[in-house]
Amino acid sequence: MSEPKTLLRIHNSKDPTQMVEVVWDEENSFFVTKGLRDLFHIKEIRIRSDDFLSRIEEYARVIGWLLETMSQAEDLHLPFGYESHFTVGGKEYDLTDDGDYKLLTPKIPERL
Asked: Using CA atoms, how far apart are residues 111 and 99, in angstroms rounded to an integer?
């Protein structure tokens, strides 16, 4: 098995020692975070490859926002749990259970 290929490194703006990577999971054809479990004892995030590649900057903002939100909760000694629906930058996202991961997808508006 080859070493995972890192595409992004996202640092917490208030604590740069906290970093999350986004790596290519070649075996399962997904991009996954690496670092959330070690930092916060929470499931890593998985993103579909075609979706991630078409929205890299958007996903970087979302993962950065999640990292900082988890860090703030930890600093305040508050429990953190993933919300199944949330909004970042005016866009809605869903996080659904996907085995050992949470699957992150943009919420697609329903058409009338």
From this structure: 30
